[in-house]
Design a protein that fits this description.
This protein is of the alpha/beta class. It is built from 13 helices and 17 strands. It is globular.
């Protein structure tokens, strides 16, 4: 039995049902579980002093393409819309292999961790030169984050009217067979799991209707979740209307892609009827505000979704379309965009933080054990030092998204150190960054 006591926090933002905010409070953790919250708690185990700090649940990232951290700010794609941006990047990604997948994932996961993230999904939909989902899973185990990788896929190449080059697509039977392999090998359905696997055909414009339908059947047979991109921008809507004769919401409903075991990325262009459909079916949304801005996709109607009770979490999206992976920054951007669209009272700092924590946990099917600081929940915890310059002069340090640090001091997953005093507990970040930059230079030099 191991115990950890986080002691004397200036403020603990619990994000529990009552949204309690505790002051001068402690959190007692035993074997990865939160045992108690209160004042004056004690332990015979390790004590972490949180004086001058705000403590939050670990943030949850519901959409990422970790491999893209190797292709940030690529010339030719910096000012393109979605489809043009993809056409610029596909040839570069086709030269990736297992090492590129592993290092880029490790870099992306480290960036997330420093921004307060304790649990993340990943949408890997291309597997060139022997790369496998296994490569990113290995990276997550080294960093120490709770991981929800999804086995993505593309099956319709340019010669068949699709967007990706033929070299990056797979045969649909092979996709389904490998999806079965990774679920059987890696998915952990037990409570407190550190690793769960989903199935995630890339998008309606890169796979067939048949694969979408078969993927949904397979996922439900295996008891895993489904993920894809949907209604990302005007091009996406036009493609759906032209190719399928319906809007994306109808497409998803027809193929079994709604329900509380499904979450869709972006959903910038959902209309009122589609929002009602998602609310009625408890279909989740991964909101990616920075990427949506970078690609000029628009402002997703998150206020309307939240008011309708659609489950909404945040996603940083890939670092080739963001070009960062800072989840606390993503939460601030979400707040600001809703205010641009709906006025200064459209979203508060605390509501945006709620979306980034308990909202994301709900979207990933972990809302009964993660995303809140309360007894019986997992000890996935971020500690933010608000004694520095970023919060100096703030009258409400708990409003982290208004005036606060964007890097954690400490991060715990399952009660274990991931970041301690701003440094990683389990690996050498500098060596990883050096390797990442070396691989990026090689990709650029080979163009």
């Amino acid at each position: 039995m191991s115990e950890l006591l986080i002691k004397n926090a200036q403020t603990v933002l619990t994000m529990d049902t009552a949204r309690r905010e505790l002051h001068g409070a402690d959190i007692l953790i035993r074997d990865g579980e939160i045992i108690d919250l209160g004042v004056g708690l004690s332990t015979t185990g390790r004590v972490v002093d949180a004086a001058g700090c705000v403590v939050t649940p670990g943030l949850v990232n519901t959409h990422h393409h970790l491999y893209q951290s190797l292709t940030r700010a690529v010339p030719g794609g910096q000012d393109a819309l979605l489809f043009g941006w993809l056409k610029t990047l596909y040839p570069i990604w086709s030269r990736f292999g297992p090492e590129e997948m592993f290092i880029s994932a490790k870099t992306g996961l480290a960036e997330l961790a420093l921004s307060g993230c304790t649990m993340t999904s990943d949408h890997l939909y291309l597997f060139p030169n022997g790369a496998r989902l296994d490569d990113t899973i290995a990276a997550a185990q080294e960093v120490g984050l709770r991981f929800h990788p999804t086995r993505g896929a593309m099956s319709i190449g340019e010669s068949d009217g699709g967007l990706p080059p033929d070299s990056l697509v797979e045969a649909e039977r092979a996709i389904l067979e490998n999806s079965i392999r990774v679920v059987d090998q890696f998915h952990d359905a037990s409570a407190n799991a550190m690793l769960r696997v989903g199935i995630a055909p890339c998008s309606p414009f890169s796979v067939s209707r048949e694969l979408m339908r078969d993927a949904a059947i397979l996922a439900r047979d295996k008891g895993v979740m489904l993920h894809t991109h949907l209604a990302e921008n005007d091009e996406d809507i036009a493609y759906s209307l032209e190719k399928f004769g319906c809007r994306p919401g109808q497409y998803a409903q027809d193929l079994g892609w709604v329900g509380d075991d499904v979450w869709h990325a972006h959903c910038v262009k959902l209309d009122g009827a589609e929002i009602d459909l998602f609310a009625a079916t408890r279909t989740g949304v991964a909101h990616c505000p920075c990427s949506n801005c970078r690609l000029g996709s628009g402002i997703a109607p998150i206020r309307a979704m939240r008011d309708a009770k659609v489950p909404v979490g945040l996603g940083v999206d890939g670092s080739a379309s963001n070009d960062a992976g800072n989840l606390i920054g993503e939460a601030r951007q979400a707040m600001l965009l809703q205010r641009v669209a709906g006025g200064a009272d459209a979203m508060s700092a605390r509501e945006a933080l709620e979306i980034a924590t308990r909202g994301g946990a709900q979207v990933l099917g972990r809302g009964d054990e993660c995303g809140q600081l309360r007894k019986g929940f997992r000890a996935d915890i971020a500690i933010w030092d608000v004694s520095g310059i970023e919060s100096a002069g703030s009258w409400d340090p708990a409003a982290l998204l208004l005036a606060g640090p964007t890097r954690v001091r400490d991060l715990f997953v399952e009660g274990q150190d991931v970041v301690r005093d701003g440094h990683f507990a389990k690996f050498d970040l500098a060596a990883t960054v050096e390797k990442q930059n070396s691989l990026a230079r090689k990709l650029a030099d080979d163009l």
